[in-house]
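Hi V.,

You were right to ask for the full record rather than a summary. Here it is.
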Amino acid sequence: VELSNENISSSAKKLKTDRETSVPEDPNIGYRILNFLTVFSVLSECIKCKKCDSDVRFSIESTRGLGFKIVVSCSSCKPTFIPSCSYIKTAYEINTRFFFVMRLLGIGLRGAMKFCGLIDLPPTVQQTTYDMIIDNIHSAASSIVQLVLKQAVKEEQQEITKQNSSDDINAKSYGDEIEIIKKECVGHVQKRMGTRLRECKKKNSGIGGKNKLTAKFVDKLSIYYGLAIRRNSNSKDDMKKAI
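Predicted structure:
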């Protein structure tokens, strides 16, 4: 059951469609490390069953990795099962959270097993389960990356549109006496020159070939055309003469 990845897939679909994803925060929700025997042996002495007024016992079952169920039982009533953490479908959420943090710290399964052994935590999951958890984390992380990248592209496009609009609006920012003249991009003009020459060469087969209008010569003409414009941008007559 720890291998379940259905919830990851549904989360990934939501991340791909939602424009904004908000993560709720609750300061009362968190994890604590405690000694089960020390804590629950004291609780057993303080608590009685509300139904039969008998003593209550606490035990553990369904342990999978760091997740488990607390069994609350008495001499007369049916036992009550309390999961130690929330579920991701039928899998304990703590295992995914634990290995996600381990990977952020650069620690793999072996290191995680050593960590748990040193502080007397239960043994971690097996290799196959670990691999599935890592695949699920990768799937979720990839979806988030795609979401962030799409949002970044959208914001960049909006910024460009806003900037272009601002340029048009600010054309009169210097007063009516100063006219803002938008110049044509020399690179685009140079490129169009090369395109026109190549089209002319295709339509007129006689002008191409050796010692004529070759592809290399077209490139040279385009570059020269661009240089002539750049070097004489302040004088139309000088530009015409250079061309």
